[in-house]
Design goal:
This protein is an alpha/beta fold. It has 18 helices and 19 strands.
Length: 507
C-alpha cells in the first residue's frame, strides 16, 4: 500500500455510492472516508493507523489496491459528516418501502444518536429520519406534514418560502404522525387536542433542536417541526444586514446603562437573531445579562437564560420580576405580549437596566402606538424607549448563477429620484446550488427609529404613528423599503423580494 499523501484536489470526483456500502459508525469509528475507485485502486482518506487498517480491509474485500490520503482527525470527522449527509433523501426511502411496511411504526427512540446511522430501522423511522436529514441539508427552518382527503403533503420552508418535497400515500399518515409524537414525548392516543413538544437529534454531527406542534384537522393530525441548530454560530450586527452606519449607531445605544430597545416585525422576520447578535456584541465578563424567552432558541455562553413555562405560572411577567432580583445589568425579554410585561420592562429600564425585547408591529413608529394601546402611559414610553428597530428578511441572490440585466421602466419607478440612474439590476438564473430558486440564504432589511429629543415630545403628546414617522424621516430615518432598495442596487437581493416583504410600506 502506498504511503499516506495529501494531494491537491483529493475531494474531486468523490463517489457517494461508496458511502452507502460503509456504515457511518464504521467510518467514524475507524477514521476512514472512502473517496473513489479508479483503475483498480480504492482511494480513501484516513487519520491514523486504524484508518489505514480499515482501508486495507475494505479494499481487500473488493479486490482493490488501497491508496490512503492523510487528513487531520478533526478535518476528517467534519468531511465524514458533510459527505454522509449528502446521501439519501425522503424520495429514495419512499421508493424502498414496500406496501406492507407502510403502516409500521416503532415505539422507542434512543436519543441523541446520529440519525445518519439509523439506516436499518423500521421504514417509518427511516422516512422521518430522511426528512430531517434533507431539511438540514437544504437549510430548511420548518417541515410541514399536512394531511388532506386522499394524500399527505410534506413541505419544507427554505429561506422563508415553502415548497413541496414529498407526497407519500395516505396510508402512512397515522404511522408518520405517531412517530413524530413518540420522538417528541407526546400522547399518541390523544388525537383531538393540539400538542406541543421537542425533539433533540444529532444529524451529521450537528446537535439539532426540533420544536414540534401537532394540531387536529378534518383530515387527521397536522404536524409542523421547526429546526434549530444548537451549535450554529452567532452572527454579528453587521452580518444580519445592518448598514455600517446603522450598526455603529445601534452599538452606541447598546452601551447605554438604561432604556428599552425594541425589535419589531412579524413572526419569522429574524427578531430573535438580531437580539442575540446585540447581546453577543455587548457581553463582557463584568456584565450580568439575563434573558426570559419562549423558547430558548440558542444557548449563549455566559448569559443566564430562563425558559417560559405558563403551565407552572412562569410567564414573561413573573420571570421578569424574578430577574430584577438577580442584579442584572442587561435584560432580554423574548416578547412584550401584555400590559403587565410592558410595565415591568419600563420600570426596569427606569431603574438602571438596559432592556431588549420584541413586539409584533409592521414598522418602527407603530411600536410606540402599540405600547400606548396596551395601556402604557405615553410619558412612560417617551422616557424609557431609546430605539425601535423594524425588520424583515429577504432572500439573497445565489452567487453561482447571479446575472445582471437592464431593468424595465416599471421597475425603475420603485426607486427614488436619487436612484433613477441605475443602469443594471441583478437576479439569479437558478442552478443546482440554489435548487433552481435563484436565491441562497437571507439577510435583513431594517428601519432604525432612534428616540431623540425631537421624537420624545411627540410621544408624550400621544401623536399618531404617521406623524412620528414623518418626523423621523425628516431626520434621516430610512424605511424598510428604502433599505431594501439600497440592497437591490448593491446586487444583494432582487426588487421582487423587497416588494414581497415590504407590501404596504411607504417610501
Amino acid at each position: 500500500m502506498q504511503n499516506p499523501t495529501t494531494p491537491e484536489g483529493y475531494t474531486d470526483g468523490i463517489d457517494l455510492s461508496l458511502l452507502k456500502e460503509i456504515p457511518l459508525s464504521y467510518a467514524k469509528g475507524n477514521g476512514l472516508l472512502p473517496l473513489r475507485v479508479k483503475d483498480g485502486v480504492l482511494v480513501g482518506a484516513v487519520s491514523g493507523e486504524n484508518g489505514l487498517l480499515a482501508l486495507r480491509e475494505v479494499a481487500s474485500s473488493k479486490g482493490l489496491t488501497p491508496q490512503a490520503v492523510w487528513m487531520d482527525a478533526d478535518h476528517l470527522s467534519n468531511e465524514i459528516n458533510r459527505l454522509y449527509g449528502q446521501i439519501g433523501s425522503a424520495e429514495e426511502v419512499m421508493e424502498n418501502i414496500s406496501g406492507e411496511d407502510l403502516s409500521s411504526v416503532a415505539t422507542e427512540f434512543e436519543s441523541p444518536r446520529d440519525i445518519l446511522e439509523l439506516t436499518t430501522e423500521a421504514p417509518i423511522i427511516r422516512l422521518l429520519n430522511a426528512l430531517l436529514l434533507q431539511a438540514v441539508k437544504e437549510r430548511a427552518s420548518d417541515i410541514h406534514i399536512e394531511p388532506y382527503e386522499n394524500e399527505i403533503d410534506v413541505r419544507m420552508r427554505v429561506d422563508g418560502v415553502l415548497r413541496t418535497v414529498l407526497r407519500p400515500p395516505k396510508i402512512i399518515q397515522d404511522a408518520l404522525i405517531s412517530r413524530v409524537k413518540i420522538m417528541a414525548n407526546l400522547d399518541i392516543a390523544e388525537k383531538r387536542l393540539p400538542q406541543d413538544g421537542r425533539i433533540r437529534v444529532i444529524i451529521g454531527g450537528r446537535d439539532i433542536d426540533v420544536r414540534v406542534s401537532v394540531v387536529p384537522t378534518v383530515h387527521g393530525e397536522r404536524a409542523v417541526l421547526r429546526l434549530l441548530d444548537r451549535k450554529q454560530g452567532l452572527i454579528g450586527l453587521w452580518e444580519v444586514g445592518l448598514e455600517e452606519e446603522e450598526a455603529r449607531r445601534l452599538e452606541e445605544l447598546l452601551n447605554r446603562s438604561n432604556g428599552i430597545i425594541l425589535v419589531t416585525g412579524p413572526t419569522g422576520s429574524g427578531k430573535t437573531t438580531t437580539l442575540y447578535s446585540a447581546l453577543n456584541r455587548i457581553h463582557k465578563e463584568d456584565m450580568n445579562i439575563i434573558t426570559v424567552e419562549d423558547p430558548v432558541e440558542y444557548q449563549l455562553k455566559g448569559i443566564g437564560q430562563i425558559q417560559v413555562n405558563p403551565r407552572i405560572g412562569l410567564t414573561f411577567a413573573s420571570g421578569l420580576r424574578s430577574i430584577l432580583r438577580q442584579d442584572p445589568d442587561v435584560i432580554m425579554v423574548g416578547e412584550i405580549r401584555d400590559l403587565e410585561t410592558a410595565e415591568i420592562a419600563i420600570q426596569a429600564s427606569l431603574t438602571g437596566h438596559l432592556v431588549l425585547s420584541t413586539l409584533h408591529t409592521n414598522d418602527a413608529p407603530s411600536a410606540i402606538t402599540r405600547l400606548v394601546d396596551m395601556g402604557v402611559e405615553p410619558f412612560l414610553v417617551a422616557s424609557s424607549l431609546i430605539c425601535v428597530i423594524a425588520q424583515r428578511l429577504v432572500r439573497v441572490i445565489c452567487p453561482d448563477c447571479k446575472e445582471s440585466y437592464r431593468p424595465e421602466g416599471y421597475e425603475l419607478a420603485y426607486f427614488p429620484s436619487t436612484e433613477t440612474s441605475v443602469g443594471v439590476l441583478f437576479r439569479g438564473r437558478g442552478c443546482s446550488s440554489c435548487s433552481g430558486t435563484g436565491y441562497v440564504g437571507r439577510t435583513g432589511v431594517f428601519e432604525l427609529l432612534i428616540i431623540d429629543n425631537d421624537i420624545r415630545p411627540l410621544i408624550t403628546e400621544n401623536t399618531d404613528s404617521f406623524a412620528i414617522k414623518e418626523a423621523a424621516l425628516a431626520k434621516g430615518m430610512k424605511t424598510l423599503r428604502m433599505d431594501g432598495l439600497r440592497k437591490v442596487v448593491s446586487g444583494i437581493t432582487t426588487l421582487e423580494e423587497v416588494l414581497r416583504v415590504t407590501q404596504g410600506s411607504d417610501l
